[in-house]
Amino acid sequence: MKVVRGNYVILSLVCLVLGFMLSFSYEYTKSRVEKRTITDKQWNKEYEYRQLLIQSQKENQKLKAELMSKQEKVRKMEASLADKKKAYSDLATEAEQLRMYIGKVKVRGAGVEVTLSDASYIPSEQSATNYIVHEQHVLKVVHELLISGAEAIAINGQRISHRSYIVCNGPVIEVDGTQHSAPFTISAIGDSNVLASALTIAGGVKDQLTGDHVVVDIQQKDDITLDPIFHTNRE
């Protein structure tokens, strides 16, 4: 009888241990399955996010390429507009210079004033013509000033242009039909140092005029104003 009870006890213990093992094995397997299920979901989510990130990067690269292309087009347009603006500016400057050269506009700036006067002493009436200022003397000064870069010139305040003419008429000279008597003041706007140097160079205009008994006075001026040419019916 005692042996049978001992066997029951042992069997009960074996069943208890076996039940505990089965229960532990079930819970452990369930936990592993649930854990694996969560990990798979996370991995799928991460993969989805990664794909979205890759797609976004591709879109960004495409948009960046389009942006660079448009920026290049804008740069070329700006460069073209800048070239056109410069061309228009150059044309406007050239037009203004042409107006200035032909006497259409009033001009102001530094320059020189050259005064030509008859000789103060005339030995005899027969030789008087050799001691007064003639149109060729005025023309020499005007031509030298022009080739030396004068931007505008006036004779006794009368503006001259590319169409102007200067002729002698007895004791006076005519500039575009207007008579002027000596002394003749020739005003020129430009680089005063260059203009004065061109006139006073050894053997130059001043020396030639002095040799013809013309009194020459050259003054450098910081501010000279020349009015535009007044048009007449002849023009």
TrEMBL record:
UniProt record similarity statement: Belongs to the UPF0749 family.
Organism of origin: Anoxybacteroides rupiense
Protein name as catalogued: DUF881 domain-containing protein
Top-level taxon of the source organism: Bacteria
Record bears the keyword Ribonucleoprotein: no
InterPro entries, alphabetized: DUF881
Any coiled-coil regions, as ranges: 53-87
Keywords: Coiled coil
